[in-house]
User: What shape does this take?
Amino acid sequence: MLPLLILTSRCQGTRSATGKMIEFKKGAFSVAAKEGSSVVPITLDGTGRLMRNGAPPAARPPAAAPHASAAGKEGLLYPGKVVITVHPPIPAGDADAMCAAAQKAVESALEPRWRA
Assistant: This one.
């Protein structure tokens, strides 16, 4: 049986001010490539509406159910729906190629207006 490496990573590193997807950072893909592990990209569509990035309190809907985030930096957590798409595994290989393939897979599940 082959060893299993499980690593979760938020490959963008941060969120954009516009809500559009930004270029992935390749750190997690470098680890996977060095270990000879495949990568399973997962798209989380809708999280930006639940955890708004820097929206001033006046711009937040008053009817939202506020919950403090663990880090206290995101402000409020709003109710809503998140669509999770699990994509086919990307075989181990070159970290840059794996990173590009993962970004393409994740983008494919987003509405065009949210793509990079």
